[in-house]
Amino acid sequence: MSFVSRVGTMYKIQYTMLLLVYCLLFTANCYSQQTITDFITDLKKENELQNASVSLCAMDAQTGTVVCEYNSKLSLTPASTMKIITTASALQLLGKDFRYETLLQYSGTFDKESGVINGDLYIKGSGDPSLNSEYFRKEEDTFYVANKWAKALKDKGVKKITGQLVVDISCFEEDIPANWVWGDMGNYFGAAPSGLSYTDNKFYIVYKPAAKNGDSMSISKLVPQIDNVNISSYVKAGGVEDNAMVYRAPYDMDIKISGTLPVSTKALSIEGSLPFPEQLLAKHFQQALATQGIELTNKTVLKITAYTKKQYTQKLTTIYTNKSATLEKIIFFTNLHSNNQYAESIFRTIALKKAGFGSNWQGIQTITNHLKTNGFDANGLFISDGSGLSRSNGVTSEHLTKILYMMCSDTLTKLPFANSLPVAGVSGSLRNLGKGTALENNFKAKSGYITRVRSYAGYMKTKSGKDICVSLIINNFNGSPSDTKKRMEQIFLKIYESF
Question: What is the pLDDT of residues 326-342, one digit of tens each?
Answer without folding.
Answer: 999 999 999 999 999 99
